[in-house]
TrEMBL record:
Belongs to the DapA family. This is Dihydrodipicolinate synthase family protein. SMART domains: DHDPS. Pfam families: DHDPS. CDD domains: DHDPS-like. It comes from the Bacteria. The keyword Lyase applies. It comes from Streptomyces gilvifuscus.
Amino acid sequence: MTDHRPWRGILVATALPLTDDLSVDYDKYAEHCAWLVENGCDGVVPNGSLGEYQVLTPEERARVVETAVAAIGGARVMPGVAAYGSAESRRWAEQARDAGCASVMLLPPNAYRADERSVLAHYAEVAKAGLPVVAYNNPIDTKVDLVPELLATLHREGWIHAVKEFSGDVRRAYRLAELVPELDLLIGADDVLLELAIAGAKGWVAGYPNALPAASSELYHAAVDGDLATAKKLYEQLHPLLRWDSQVEFVQAIKLSMDIVGRYGGPVRPPRVPLLPEQEAAVRTATERAVAAGLA
């Protein structure tokens, strides 16, 4: 991973270990961050959706970032700084900066369907914290779409340096390359990894490496290196799990897979609820197949 573009490579959107009483287990989280790096990942993204940031207290959210930095060093930590208000997002970016992080990831305003002027103002405000900002385009959940033309404007103004692209529309990779080739494209959904890697992605903000980091790292590097024979086989083997990253129950699914492979996934905080029996059975079957194939 290059220091001047610390968002490149595999940055795992980390699941957050909770105890039976749903408090945060910071020791387990530190160990998890270190384990991911030891197993082929380049860094972590704390306080993303997978980290259940929406249901953390401010104190918990700050400590999660500090825990990750202490575990693996700030250059490898890119916290999510999403919030309803731009001032609050900027404060989270400043907290990340002061903790020693090298970049942050930012959703557009998502308390309402923001217009383009609001989106531009939001990114301009958070950029004032002084850390490079990676935009996160998730129009499925936020209802605000960072289309290529808008991303080009944000980059031209100096407010973003990369984009985590979660729309699932792989055609956008080619439009972005035409409009703004200097903007780094990061794979944002696990189940379009191969398609976006072929299209020139520079990194992967990843979900399923929480459970299967080594196999996921092998898949990513084969894909970006153009070793399509290796990549396609691994992709087919892993895709029954990777597609859970794009489902509503992605946090529960990934945590269950972690439990199955011998890591600690644990429970989720409300309003999330446990998987339905048929969902749990599907995740369990797919995970056990991956284990049997030597991918865990």
